[in-house]
Amino acid sequence: MAVRLLLVDDHDLVRQGLKALLEKQGFQVVCEASNGQEALRLAAKDKPDVAIMDISMPIMNGVDAAREMTKSSPRTKVILLTQHDEDQYEISTSLRLSVPE
């Protein structure tokens, strides 16, 4: 059975490219979102195995969405991506999301 994915990025071209590459490798993209708020709604509805999410997005960024997704959809694993040099604090916060307190 293929791994079910949620792709989250505010750039359509990035989502299309990721989708094409991942589907060639046997992954199944079950839903796509352009912001964190939409990603949370789709994760609850479609229950993907993994969410691949950009950090920098409008409405709700990837860090906040990932933090909320680990609570609202705990079975969905989150991978955060960025193409920018992010603030070190934001990256550190992101990495701690999956570490239990």
Note down, in words, how this protein is organized.
- The protein is an alpha/beta fold and 101 residues long.
- The chain has four helices and four strands, in the order βαβαβαβα.
- It has a four-stranded parallel sheet with strand order 2-1-3-4, with helices on both faces.
- Helix 3 links the parallel strand 3 and strand 4.
- The protein is globular.
- It starts with a strand and ends in a 5-residue tail after the last helix.
- The model has no long low-confidence stretch (mean pLDDT 86).
Counting helices, strands and paired strands, the structural category is alpha/beta
Euclidean distance between termini CA atoms: 33 Å
Query: Helix-strand pattern, N to C?
Result: EHEHEHEH
| Approximate shape | globular
Strand percentage, roughly? 15-25%
Q: Provide the helix percentage.
A: 40-55%
Task: Please give the count of helices.
Answer: 4
Strand order of the largest sheet: 2-1-3-4
Question: Quick check: average pLDDT?
Answer: 86
Overall radius of gyration:
13 Å
Low-confidence stretches: none
Number of strands: 4
Q: What does the main sheet amount to?
A: 4 strands, parallel
